[in-house]
């Protein structure tokens, strides 16, 4: 029962923080440190939780994805262009992931670094309050710039959605388009993370110590919570309240830094 509670708790953390601009990786690192959740980590659980949040994106944008797929099949330039823009945005993160994997893994072992990164995320999010409203569409240069910030967000404590959506807002991109591009750009990366974890699972076996029922519940919870997290964030973006999350990140980063320093 205790392990089931930990799996569900991790699933909720993953579902909420994967899409809200508060850094899912940072929260998982701090949760493991302060709540003693190390026992539930492992390749199998990682696959399940990431698969759940990937499903959140696919369900929330199902209609738009179907239109894009149909457009690509028909050879429509707009659909092909958007698909290529999403792939271009993924390139920097893929390159960084393969070239700096050891250094990135080291950051995940340093909770104090995560606290500082959360405060940096908070400052950036608060600054988006001063970004001028725009109605631009994502272009090749802006897509690459947003992709670079997504790569930076591979560091725990740096929010992926916060970095990408915030950067898009500073580039004058319309809020709905900024969120759409950010979330759809994350889908190939989430799929890639799950695929790599599957390779690790095949090589080392199930290291999560979780039962089939616990994995199913973890998947369902992360998918459901992730869906409503996306819906809530898109709503806040439309109302100009995206920067509110910066206050939370600043407070959480400062609070955990103090705890770690005691």
Give a structural overview.
The chain has 262 residues and is an all-alpha fold. It has one domain. The protein contains 12 helices and no strands. It is globular and about 50 Å long. The mean pLDDT is 87.
The biggest sheet, with number of strands, parallel, antiparallel or mixed sense and barrel status, is: none
How much is the average pLDDT?
87
Q: Give Rg in angstroms.
A: 18 Å
Backbone structural class: mainly alpha
Individual helix count: 12
Unreliable segments of 5+ consecutive residues: none
The tally of domains stands at 1
SSE succession: HHHHHHHHHHHH
Taken as a percent bin, the fraction of beta residues is under 5%
Please report the total strand number as a whole number.
0
The outline comes out as: globular
Q: What level of helicity do the residues show?
A: over 70%
Distance between the termini: 32 Å
